[in-house]
Amino acid sequence: ERRAKEYGPDGLTGEATESHNTALTSLALISDNRIVTGGRDNLVKVSDQNGTVLETLSDFTSYPTKIINDGNGNILVGCANGDLFRYDFDDWSMEQLTIDSGQNILSITMANNNKILIGTQNGKLHVIDDMNFTETEDFSAAGRVLIANYGVAGELYVISTFSSSSKVRLFDIDTDGDSVTDSQDDFPDDSTQTVDSDGDGYGDDINGNNPDYFPEDGSQWADTDGDGYGDNPDGNDSDAFIDNPDQWVDSDGDGYGDNLNGEGGDRFPNDPTQWVDSDFDGFGDEVDGNNGDHCPSENGFSTQDRLGCKDSDNDGYSDPTEDWTIQDGADFKIYDKSQWKDSDNDGYGDNLSGNDPDSCPLNWGNSTSAYVPEVTGDGTLTFQYVIIEKFGCTDTDGDGFYDAGDDLPEDPRDYIDEDGDGIGASVDYNDSNKLVQTALNHCTFYPEDTTETCQGVRDSDYQNYVNSVDEGDSVDSYFTWKKVVASDADDDEAGGYMDTAMEILPFLGAAFGIMIVGILVVGAIGKSRKRRKLVKQYGVPFVPGEGDAEKEALEDKAGLSASGGVDSDKFWDDDVEPMELSAKPQEEPSGFDDIDIREGNVTQNSDVMEESSSIEELAGLPPQSTVADMEIKNQALEGSEEPVTPPLPDSGLPDGWTMDQWKWYGAQWLENQK
Question: What does the H/E/C string look like for 183-195?
Fold first, then answer.
């Protein structure tokens, strides 16, 4: 019925386990009165006393043939294919092995020395170590092994059965008494030897009879000179020099022993074409031999183009010499380990992973860079143009940029043309706008721009000046040019003073007229020179820091500075010879002797000079202000709006300036610095 049934004293009790799909093949009892059954359905079922299945084990590829309780909380399950399983009762964790014979397991015996004895259907007995669950040895005996166990002296008893009889077999007989049974003793009649690992008839025990000095080599056993090589010339590693402990073999047959440090040692023991290495670089002196040294008298380690020559950068390629050039294969960069070959002779190495790699190794080129787009690293997947190294490619305009990475490959002035208008960034006034290439374009499109540049563009006089400058000469900026023009105007003003003096000269006496003319001319010249000097030196027509008292006086603020008043000698500090104005002993003409000022006798020029005219009017100068005039002027100044103080530059107030000067003239100074 393919199940286990319970019998009592009166026969069947009616309790039974669950049926297997096919025949029941094995049965065992474990703790808690559990019943373990195995069947040909390759299942093991664990049931309680009521027949309820508690656990089903299905790890088998062949049906269970034997199940036992090992007494240590495990069950052992043997199968028809030689598989052996061990299950823990508590958690049903599993260990598995397969016996070496792979035969049907017929019996499982727990021995008294932590061994598990497995008997098979065909006369094999396997010994399993209970501790690590591995097979340690096996025995053979005819018949089916029903049971096995160890005797008190360590002998092994095996019970085998046949179709008509059974036998008890005894293993582990020890004839020579060396504690190794005859079946395991290679020398059963010699108690000094038990093992002959290489099977050459000599025991492994070096202290026993007929010891084997080479226990793992069946072809050697004796070593007369003790050099570790056997005396048998027909054996492995035989000693070719049995009387010389320094040498034992001549592998290449060139007559020199392989031991380099011994007498007659061969520096190349496996190469019959080499035996000497004069420069000790590892390459034989025979250049026609294997790995012949091309530089036998010079220690060198080149390995690529030629062997044994100097290799300064240790890249394998030799340094060039007179008889071995770069064209022959020598290193074209002897101090750069990363480069050795330059196919196109442009000075950049072919190795793309080396220094200054040639991006175009087959085409001569002189480029060093390229201007290319790359994805930004901010996660926006946008592009930005960057300069990268690009050595050895075509650079038509010689600006260092590879033609394919040069927006203007035929313009050496530029490699960037962002707006694609064919004009490089260095000369394009606005390289982000195709419509704006020059300052004129810009100032035309942006009429609100009042910078110095646009003021100059819109000033036709300045443009005429620019066009008049010879090629190669520097061109003044617009504001500088204006200063020069203003300075020239001062020269014209001096000429005006002279014209004025010449106009009044007919109305004055000779001596007095000459004196007045001299005063006007010298004053005009001095004023003009000083103005040009100040503009050139300070950018403004005054010395920063000076003139405070004069300005205070003119603005009715006398007393704000330590000294005050108008400097009447302001325009007389040029290097001009002083005039001799002292009185002479003889009487000088009054200066008016040649002028008819009688009433009723007015000349045709009387509208130019009247008796009430001041000396300033006569000289053509603006009239001097009276005290009343100054009061009126000061009242007007007090009612007028003062200029807004311009912001100070980053470097602070210019040296020598006062804040009062900065308020009135700072804007002009800032404009001149542009």
Answer: CCCCCCCCCCCCC
Residue in the block written with tokens 């109305």: 507
261-275, 380-394, 533-547, 569-583: the lowest-pLDDT one: 569-583
As a CATH number, domain 5-171 is: 2.130.10.10
> Please, which residues have CB within 8 angstroms of residue 145's CB and are 6 or more apart in sequence?
106, 107, 119, 120, 123, 124, 125, 158, 159, 160
Q: Each residue of 261-292: pLDDT tens digit? A: 998 899 999 999 999 999 999 999 999 999 99
Q: 544 in helix, strand or coil? A: coil
Residue pair 358/347 in contact by the 8 Å Cβ criterion: no
Q: Is the pLDDT of residue 616 over 50?
A: no
Three-state SS annotation for 472-528: CCCCCCHHHHHHHHHHHHHHHHHHHHHHHHHHHHHHCCHHHHHHHHHHHHHHHHHHH
Number of Cβ atoms within 10 Å of the Cβ of 192 = 14
Nearest-angstrom CA–CA distance, 653 and 659: 8
d(CA 70, CA 485): 122
Q: Which two tokens stand for residue 130?
A: 């209970």
Q: Which residue ranges make up each domain of the chain? A: 5-171, 478-672
Please give the C-alpha separations between residue 91 and each of 76, 87, 94, 472, in angstroms, as whole numbers.
15, 8, 9, 101
The alpha carbon of residue 269 and the mean position of all alpha carbons in its chain are separated, in whole angstroms, by 47
Beta strands 156-161 and 64-69, pairing class:
unpaired
Task: For residue 378, give the 3-state DSSP assignment.
Answer: coil
Mean pLDDT over each residue of the chain, to the nearest integer = 81
354 and 339 Cβ atoms separated by less than 8 Å: yes
Whether residue 458 contacts residue 452, with contact meaning beta carbons closer than 8 Å, is answered with no
Structure tokens at 171: 């293993």
C-alpha separations of 262 from 178, 247, 248, 272, 280 in Å: 44, 6, 10, 18, 17
